[in-house]
Amino acid sequence: MRISDVIHQKGTSVVTAPADEKVEQLVALLADNGIGAVVVTDEDYGVIGIAGERDVVKALRVHGEAALRLTVAEIMSAPVRTCAPEDDITGVAGLMTAFRVRHVPVVVDGRLTAIVSIGDIVKGRIDELQTEHEYLISYLHQ
């Protein structure tokens, strides 16, 4: 299964933020959208960072309430591990595990097109295994 298959199932919607956005607005974006991370992009949708729950928690630990007045650029994780639609989900799962990330932006020609989470990858793999299981059961009952 490829990342493009996962995107086909989940869609291409991605919540983004500019680097100069305040962390307070970032927290609102995360909460209002029920998501764990936003992709930080430039004007051309180039990926320059990713900011998520872990980044906010680290900033709060170091700066206290003042963290809410920092910019997203000051707390985001960069550089960002990305993938392409043609990548295999097993490879992306390995990347997520190796670098301990839960969200990977999907990039085509240097521009953000989608995002996949560890949950999306797990669901894709479960669907893949279910299909294989059904095929094997069908084969055995012929």
From TrEMBL:
Annotated CBS domain residues: 8-68, 76-131
Keywords annotated in UniProt: CBS domain
PANTHER family named in the record: CBS DOMAIN-CONTAINING PROTEIN, CBS DOMAIN-CONTAINING PROTEIN CBSX3, MITOCHONDRIAL
Descriptive protein name: CBS domain-containing protein
Organism, scientific name: Tessaracoccus defluvii
